[in-house]
Design goal:
The protein is an all-alpha fold. It contains eight helices and no strands.
């Protein structure tokens, strides 16, 4: 008797959601900061190199500028904020984790249009994509504590007024 049943259909493959322009700008800024931390190369050269990369046109260029140049200009201040919450000198962190933490701290400090939980989550996602196995957990913990310093009222309100 011939098999007349329909062949089993394959489940549709899930497509990853499209990356937002802000996510792309964070990724480009991370790559540029990594290059700066490792090589010490001129930030103008790094900036030009990042803009030449495939897909940069889909990034939020203004946010990329703010992150890359802001993190470099304020590196010492950002490291001082992070130093209160890391377990070693920031210079001893992996360059990826260091750059991710700088971006997260910069957004917490300056990008008030980005809710603090979003800034932390975006940094965690960068660490998952580019960092070591459990680096995202470390990034989450450090930035969660840094948020209390940088956005105390927002954190307090989100936690129901308890500190």
């Amino acid at each position: 008797m011939p098999n007349t049943s329909k062949p089993a259909s394959k489940p549709a493959a899930k497509r990853a959601p499209a990356k937002s322009a802000r996510r792309r700008s964070r990724e480009s800024a991370l790559q540029g900061l990594y290059q700066w931390l490792v090589s010490g190369e001129d930030i103008g050269v790094i900036d030009a190199h990042m803009r030449e990369q495939d897909g940069f046109g889909k990034a939020d260029a203004a946010h990329f500028d703010a992150l890359l140049h802001g993190c470099v200009l304020e590196a010492a201040d950002l490291d001082a904020v992070l130093a209160r919450h890391v377990d070693r000198k920031t210079t001893e962190l992996s360059p990826i984790e260091h750059a991710v933490l700088m971006i997260g701290a910069y957004e917490l400090k300056h990008c008030m249009d980005v809710p603090y939980k979003v800034a932390i989550n975006e940094a965690v996602e960068l660490a998952k994509s580019f960092g070591g196995t459990d680096g995202h957990k470390y990034v989450n913990g450090v930035l969660d504590r840094a948020a209390i310093d940088l956005r105390p009222l927002e954190v307090q309100a989100a936690r129901g007024g308890a500190r």
